[in-house]
Amino acid sequence: MISAVHFRNFKALRSAAVRLEPFNLVIGPSGSGKTSLISALLQLRSLSGLPVTHAHDLKGHRPGGPQIEFHFSPPFQNVRVTLGCSADQLVCNLLVVDHPPGLAGEGQWAELRTQLQGIRAFLFDHHAMAVPARRADDAELAANAANLAAVLAARRESAPVALAHLEGQFRRIQPEFGGLDFHDAGDGRVELRARLAEGGAVLSAADLSQGTLHLLAILCLAHDPHPPGLICLEEADRGVHPRLLREVRDACYRLSHPLAGTRAPVQVIATTHSPYLLDLFRDHPEEIVIAHKRGHAATFEKLAERADLLELMKETNLGDLWYSGILGGVPAE
């Protein structure tokens, strides 16, 4: 959906641009622009639902100050959206839309702004997931996945086939479990539980590990019959054992590359600090975005644009190249 994002004088991103693929893994140190990229997408979602300023109304007078410009894939390649921010970069409250003239252009923007409402960002919190959640028939996974129990319980009624596929993947990835249960916790709340494969004992969500809960949240997104149009997944490797990171990658790919005819693809932007997860994308360097921080300035670089990449990968794997600092995207020493 979003093909590129350009930053001008926004925080550390003084002059930076990033091209986006259906799936994107963003690596880099703290303060290098990873969170700014996700925040910009969320701000785009928020402002696109409000009255906007059209470029032709400005009569050539573009707003000054920090700006974030968004470009889109077909059929919206002729629409450009600019996010205008205050000089202190703390508030971005102006959205300028530039689209072709006439009813056709207005129709394009109307359709695009509807799709932009499907942008979501997630940073899972296993403590919140362990607490019983209030039931909801139309539950959408919360940003911290605190309502995971309610979402899966609702799916048991509304999309039992999707939930069965999720449980099947869960049992395959973690064979010590035999399935999921949903316990009525009273006061309209439901608690997520997991059955052990041997003996049938049931563990409450509070007794499940951080990695298990995060894995369930990722599977919840991957097996959503009606997922958001764009998903930002912060710290995709968080709490997951390195041996299970391939499952995280495959779940993300399930979103961005669905089986033909099943549903529309979901654009995924995931961040990680794990060299083990990075190494799983050795064959797809076009999906890797390196966020560099040099002094007070940050920039983005597509790994596939490194002219020396093939030569470097003859010596060692991507994770080691990143950890060593050869690829950049590491804290300053």
Question: Could you characterize what this model shows?
Answer:
This protein is an alpha/beta fold. It has 2 domains: 172 residues, Rossmann fold (3-Layer(aba) Sandwich); 106 residues, no CATH class. Helix content is 32%, strand content 28%. It is built from 11 helices and 16 strands. Strands 2-1-5-6-7-4 form a 6-stranded mixed β-sheet. Strand 5 and strand 6 form a beta hairpin. Helix 6 packs antiparallel against helix 7 and helix 7 packs parallel to helix 8. The protein is globular. The mean pLDDT is 92.
Strand content: 25-35%
Sheet/helix structural class: alpha/beta
Q: In angstroms, what separates the terminal alpha carbons?
A: 37 Å
Query: Can you tell me the CATH topology of the largest domain?
Result: Rossmann fold
The biggest sheet amounts to:
6 strands, mixed
In total, the number of strands is 16
Overall geometry: globular
State the helical fraction. 25-40%
Cα Rg: 21 Å
Mean pLDDT: 92
Number of folding domains?
2
Name of the top-level CATH class of the largest domain: Alpha Beta
- Give the strand line-up of the largest sheet: 2-1-5-6-7-4
Order of helices and strands: EEEHEHEEEHEHEHHEEEHEHEHEEHH
Residue stretches low in confidence (pLDDT < 50, at least 5 long) are: none
Number of helices: 11
Known CATH architecture of the largest domain: 3-Layer(aba) Sandwich
Notable features of this structure?
11 helices; 6-stranded mixed beta sheet; Rossmann fold; alpha/beta; 32% helix; 333 residues
Spell out the blueprint of helices and strands:
Elements (H helix, E strand, L loop, with lengths): L1 E9 L2 E7 L3 E5 L6 H15 L4 E2 H4 L8 E6 L7 E6 L6 E7 L3 H15 L2 E4 L3 H4 L3 E2 L13 H11 L1 H14 L3 E10 L2 E8 L5 E3 L5 H13 L7 E4 L11 H12 L10 E6 L2 H5 L8 E7 L2 E6 L6 H5 L4 H7 L9
Parallel strand pairs: 3-14, 3-15, 4-7, 8-13, 13-14
Antiparallel strand pairs: 1-2, 1-5, 5-6, 6-7, 9-11, 10-11, 11-12, 15-16
